[in-house]
Design brief:
By secondary structure, the protein is an all-beta fold. It folds into 2 domains: about 130 residues, Hypothetical Protein Tm1070, Chain: A; about 325 residues, Glycosyl hydrolase domain, family 43 (Tachylectin-2, Chain A, 5 Propeller), CATH 2.115.10.20. It is built from 2 helices and 35 strands. The strands form 8 sheets. Strands 1, 3, 29, 30, 32 and 34 form a 6-stranded mixed beta sheet that branches. Strands 2, 4, 28, 31, 33 and 35 form a 6-stranded antiparallel beta sheet that branches. The two termini are about 30 Å apart.
Length: about 475
């Protein structure tokens, strides 16, 4: 996709996960270039944070108290009257909380009549029969119907929504069946404010069902999406159906992953961040990043790096890992939680756990300037006012910025020679020039030209003064 210029960037961070804001990039030497680099989050040394239970995970941090809250899928096998263990377990949603995001409490709540040992199960579905694949939605206040939380989940008959004021007591009176479609994975519903619609990322289980006859049944383990102008509605009305948007390609087949188990999605700074689950039938599942500007066309990095990979040896997460639907910003880091299992998808009696990975804030994908130097030129931007702030590591190199007009003519006082060279490491460094400031150019159309040598830059933004 190519954006309309000039870009109206506002004060959100501008990421380099793709070339959306970039007009050109090159190395000063012909054999070099400014290249994209992926920075894999680091697993917390104390993992697993929660042992013996876990599933599709959601973590939020209360902006007022700083407390972390977690909702995750759990399950138990309940023998029938003859003592036989069923093939399908009973699924529920469990709750945990933490003051620091590391030490977690599984409180004895007694909210649900759960047949297993866990006392922190808070929802079993409106009929008490099933609640799986929970997703705590990030939606506008008017979509929460007067409540603090809205949760999407798979229940009896398909997909449901339900509300809660405290995240523990979920009100059956608010429960609504929104689609008779058995998309049995971590479905996510995202609000796209720019287009005035909700997007539901799911499986196309309305027409592909993994039956015995492969030619007739098809395969639903791909990534599909649906849209609706409303959240609380019948999503399959008016013949609306999921559209396939991601199908495994040649690179997936080369590594043996010819299925996608799911893709939780969040929207941040104008980007849809997909946490894709490549699936090697019928064994391992890992987590890979994907990115989209419109929620329809997703890009994946060329070398297909993993956001969360399996643990080695006899690690607790050596079989499968399922990344969550969002990160939590903690200081200068993004914390990303995931569920792990000690065996493959085809295994039985697996032990689950919940883990944490950490990465620099905004720090998944950078542009790296070569040792010989390189340049990044942005598209035409309408500068909204404020100074220029960059998230960059130039501790082993240097970064300078020139401000130019649409034709790349340097603006007086904002050229490279006027710029204070950055040689540090900061998630929020304000670039300065000797005699002028970008604050002088509020509302003007400009280009930024970033000279980068032996350094990484993740984002830039217009500061809010």
């Amino acid at each position: 996709m190519v954006p309309t210029e000039p870009l109206e960037i506002g004060h959100e961070p501008q990421f380099f996960v793709d070339d959306w804001v970039i007009d050109n990039r090159w190395g000063e030497r012909d054999a070099e270039n400014v290249v994209r680099r992926f920075h894999q989050p680091v697993k917390h040394a104390g993992n697993p944070l929660i042992s013996g239970t876990g599933g599709y995970v959601n973590v939020l941090r209360d902006p007022d108290t700083g407390r972390f809250e977690m909702w995750y899928q759990t399950h138990v096998y309940v023998p029938d009257e003859s003592g036989q263990i069923p093939r399908i377990p009973l699924y529920g949603v469990a709750y945990a909380r933490s003051q620091d995001g590391i030490e977690w409490e599984l409180p004895d709540l007694g909210v649900c009549d759960w047949p297993g040992q866990e006392r922190n199960v808070v929802w079993m579905g409106a009929d008490g029969e099933r609640a799986s694949g929970p997703h705590i939605l990030d939606v506008p206040e008017d979509a929460r119907r007067g409540h603090r939380h809205v949760m999407a989940y798979k229940g009896t008959g398909g997909q449901h929504l339900v509300c809660s004021d405290d995240g523990i007591h979920w009100d059956p009176a608010t429960n609504m069946h929104i689609a008779h479609m058995h998309s049995d994975t971590h479905n996510t519903i995202v609000r796209d404010e720019a287009r005035g619609q909700y997007i539901w990322f799911c499986r196309a289980k309305d027409r592909y069902n993994d039956g015995e006859t492969r030619r007739d049944a098809g395969r639903p383990r791909r990534i599909a999406r649906m849209t609706s102008p409303e959240l609380w509605t019948d999503w399959l009305a008016d013949e609306r159906r999921p559209q396939m948007i991601l199908v495994p390609d040649e690179l997936d087949l080369a590594r043996g992953t010819n299925f996608f188990y799911g893709m939780p999605v969040m929207r941040h700074a104008g980007i849809f961040w997909g946490f894709l689950w490549p699936f090697r039938m019928n064994t391992d599942i890992q987590v890979e990043p994907a990115f989209s500007r419109d929620g329809l066309h997703f890009e994946r990095l060329p070398n297909r790096p993993l956001l969360v990979e399996l643990g080695g040896g006899d690690a607790w997460d050596r079989g499968m890992v399922f990344g969550g639907a969002r990160w939590v910003e903690v200081g200068d880091e993004w914390w990303y939680y995931y569920a792990g299992f000690d065996g493959p998808h085809s295994g039985h009696g697996l032990t689950a756990g919940m883990g944490l990975t950490r990465v620099r804030r905004e720090g998944l994908v950078s542009l790296r300037g070569p040792e010989g130097g390189g340049v990044i030129v942005t598209r035409r931007l309408r500068w909204p006012g404020g100074g220029l702030v960059i998230n960059a590591d130039a501790a082993g190199g240097e970064i300078e910025v020139r401000v130019a007009d649409w034709a790349r003519r340097p603006i007086e006082g904002l050229d490279y020679a006027d710029c204070a060279t950055f040689t540090g490491d900061s998630v929020a460094h304000e670039v300065t020039w000797g005699g002028r400031s970008l604050r002088d150019l509020a509302g003007e159309v400009i280009r930024l030209e970033i000279a980068i040598r032996g350094a990484d830059i993740w984002t830039f933004r217009a500061a809010v003064d």
